[in-house]
Amino acid sequence: QSLAVTMSVNPVKNAPELTGPGPIVAPTGSKSVSLTQDGTPISVYDFDARPVSIEQVTIEAVQGEGDLTFNTTDFSDRCSKDLNATVPTWVCRSTIATLNKILPTAIWTTTGTGDHDDVLQVTLNDLGNVGVDNTPQLTS
Question: Taking Cα atoms as reference points, which of 90, 84, 33 lies closest to residue 60?
Answer without folding.
Answer: 90
